[in-house]
Design goal:
Blueprint: E1 33-47, E2 50-64, E3 66-69, E4 93-97, E5 110-112, E6 114-118, E7 132-135, E8 151-152, E9 155-159, E10 167-180, H1 184-193, E11 197-204, E12 212-219, E13 240-241, E14 252-254, E15 260-265, E16 277-287, E17 292-298, E18 305-306, H2 309-312, H3 324-329, E19 332-336, E20 346-355, E21 357-358, E22 363-365, E23 368-377, H4 381-388, H5 395-398, H6 411-416, E24 419-426, E25 433-441, H7 451-454, E26 459-462, E27 470-475, E28 484-492, E29 498-499, E30 507-512, E31 516-518, E32 528-530, E33 533-538, E34 547-555
Parallel strand pairs: 1-22, 1-23, 14-23
Antiparallel strand pairs: 1-2, 2-10, 3-6, 4-5, 4-9, 7-11, 8-10, 9-10, 11-12, 13-15, 15-19, 16-17, 16-18, 16-20, 20-23, 21-22, 24-25, 26-27, 27-33, 28-29, 28-34, 30-33, 31-32
Length: 560
Amino acid sequence: MRFAKTLLAAALILVPGKAFSEGRFNTTDLGNIILQMSDAREYLQTGLFNVQFRAGELFVEIRDGFVTIAACSGNGGPIILAPQIGCALGTTAFVSEGDFDGDGIRDDLAFYSAVEVAPALLVAALRPDLVTLESRPFGAIDLTGQSGLFNDRSVLVFFNVLTGLIQQYEITFYDFVRSYGAGPGERSRMKDEVRPGAYGFNFPLLDNEPVTIPIGVTLYQPPKVFDPTDLAVDSDRHFRFVSGVYSMDGYYLMDHRLTNQVRWKGIRFTNTFPLLDEYRLSIFAYDADSDTTGDILFPPNGVPILLDFEDVIEDTGPGWFNTVEAREEAAGGYNLPPFFFSVGQEALFQLRLDRLIPTTIASYDTSCRLLNVRVRFVDSYDGFSLIAFPAGTSSADRSGAADFDEDTWTSLEEFAFGRQEEVYEADPDTGELVLTEINIIPDPADPSSTPETEGTYPVIEEDPDNPGKVLITLTKRAFTEGVLEYTLNAKIKDGEFMPVLDNPAEWEVVENSVTDSTPGALPGDPPTYVPGMLVVRSVDDLVPDDVMIDVGLKLLPFRN
């Protein structure tokens, strides 16, 4: 999970242990006592009308007091350090009890260099048994009056140990986490249990045990996400990505050489708060085998793009719903610029909502939404034609049906039966391999470069492992699944051309695969790949001269 506990910054010691990512806000800027409640949910879209629930959390925490730790190589050690280069302040804090640095491991009897200690002012530490939920919206999860729900991550610390004014401070920290797994069942359970509205909590009062004090917080309704299992859901009013074409395995298909217009619906002024909600966009490295994400690939600086609300929110003004065209034009979106990725690369496109809505001077709704779609960068003819032809070539001459170089092969045929060869050279400063040249073989702008001499036009041959049988091997252009369709037709002797995949009486399929790629052997190496293949074997005994073949090619739309 990657939800942020958005009020807590990584610079503070008391950061939540179950954070999806680092938070955005420093609580010292908001006050000493902070109660936050977060309804956090993550979704993955795998088709225009298929949005999956991946994970969720109901998260509540209260923090009264804080500590800021200084950079020091001796932090957490068993001895007192005097001021020195590695620890400019020296040891200033002695931890009597608790997890001082927020790493999930108790730091009892350890020494730290702390810049500042702000003690608890209202809520007592070390009494999680007195923390309870006392009120909730109608129908929400009923935990009222139950004790022991909250984890105690409070700290007792002595500060400043290098001076004569050593005092013991309490820093109070309680949190509650309820997690939800993937799937429609968990989505329904969270929908039923976590509802917008007012929640009231009781906390132990400092120095007045067992007296408690009430503090309330309100969850506000964020944009609802499209649910394909709910027949009552309005697909035009609930969030989903509305652009693009998806592969059979649920990837949004893009070509890195084109500007890709990603559009979404369902974010309106009626369900979001322009001054209190923030939407960020980023693209992460993605590993399909483990279904995990890595570093941010875009933007290149690794910092998610904070979107302007005019890009996020669809126009809901007068007449916006009158026509389909008007609704599509009103969608929010982002134009992903070209040439930041490579053919065959896979990534995770994420639009993220982070909310910071105050309920009282001390409580906040910090809900979060992660709206994801997996992306595969394919080798489309549209992207290919941008680099295959000289600058200034007309649209008609770039067409796949045209024969630009007048060699009797259409440009689409040269694309389908050719390959793209990428040349990498080592950067002299970093040693990292960098793409320096792209060679197109066959080249539709070069009449001497044809599939007959350099390409991968289908081959008819005797099967070396089964004498008397004929093999037809069609090598597909790599990474064209979903954007280019091959149809292999064969005629035996004086028969008629028939699609081989629909003719099991005459042909058996040996292989019908798509492109398979693997990472480079070393960091920085380009990936290696094996193009998809269609291999069929004759059922009856034949010789190659008995067979004629014809290949049909069809460009599939992959952008809308």
